[in-house]
Every structure is written in C-alpha cells, then in structure tokens.
Amino acid sequence: MSKRFVKASMNQPLVVSGAGTAPFFKVTVFEQEHFQGKSQELTTECCNIQDRSFQHIGSLRVESGAWVGYEHHDFQGQQFILERGEYPHWDAYSGSLGYHVERLMSLRPIYCAAHETSRMMIFENENFMDRSVEVCDDYPSLQAMGWCGTQVGSMHVQCGAFVCYEFPGYRGQQYIMECERNSGDYPHWKTWGSHSQTPQIQSIRRVQH
User: Fold this and answer.
1) Apex 33 CA angle, 29 and 35, nearest 5
2) pTM score, whole prediction
3) β-pair partners for 2
4) Which strands make up the sheet holding 171-178, listed edge to edge?
5) Domains of the chain, start order
6) 172-195 pLDDT, tens digit each
7) How far apart are CA 65 and CA 41, in angstroms?
C-alpha cells in the first residue's frame, strides 16, 4: 500500500532567484558558550575541531547554508541540525534531547538541501518493505497525518534532506537523512547514525538551506 502525505497549501513555493548558483556555506565556531573565546570561520567540513586547536565547540553562528553538528569527532554520536542562525548554548541545538550534549566536536555542510523540492519515501519495515508513504513537507506528527504506529523501518531520500525526530513536535534524537549519502538509502534504523538505538520516528521536516 502506498500513500502520499500532502499538506494543505499553507506554504506557497518560494521564487528561486539565481538558479544554478552553487550555495555558499559558512559557520563561525567559538570555543566557549555565548560566542566567547577562540573563534574560527569554516566553509567546509571539519572532522575534528581539536585539529584546529580547539578543545570543543561551545557556541556557533551559522551564516550560510545548513550544517550537521556531531557530539564526537569523525561525525559520530548524536546529530544536530544547524540551520542559519545563532546557537549561543548547547540547548539551542540539542533542544529536548533526553540527555545533555554540551559540546560539538565535528560538523559538515548539507550540500543537497533543497527545501522546496525535498522528497522521501518512508517504509513500515526494514529493507523498504511493506506499507510506504511519500513525504514531501513538514510533519510535526506522522500519526496525525495518517501513519500507523510510532516506528519507521527504512527510508529512501529521493531529493533534498530531512530531519527525522524521535518524538512528535520535532523533539528527541535527530537523524539527518540526505539524498547524497548512501545514495539516499537507509534500509535499517542502524544506518541512520552511530547514535541510532531505536526505529522510533514521530515527526519529520525538511532541512532549511
């Protein structure tokens, strides 16, 4: 059974200007909270902030593009979506996560973010089996939109990038799903990230770029 979630047209498509221009990525990281201490601008991925003579990242400003921050070096541990704006303290990016992640050790840009055209299939079971639904919008509650149960077995990102959350209302652990990683295929919840411990997904939204 296949079904498509289509939300009422509350969000009209944006007019895209400068089509064909590659996006620019820029983030300024600070060693201490509230934009204090040592700072540095990044425009490409950093697999270990300690390689740049930082102890860790205590706060940051995303000036352009969308990024993913990680709890540990080499893009391991909890994932956090970092869209344009300021993150003066750990709770600005970790939100309602079950435990505190007070520092980031690595981060990278999301090159494939395409907010208005993002599209993904979610499947009831592992390996893209059984009931499926096409996701092409923001869904604060999958159950309210017609998805049965609280779990998702596998996903295939056809275009763009999404953030999947453990609980409704974009709360809990975050999992960044991208069409350019693993060819967009996430056949098992263990492929969502090194921190994945459950197939529970209850809200999904598109990455803002």
Assistant:
1) 50
2) 0.86
3) 132
4) 106-109, 67-72, 76-82, 171-178, 161-167, 203-206
5) 26-109 (2.60.20.10), 119-206 (2.60.20.10)
6) 999 999 999 999 999 999 999 999
7) 13
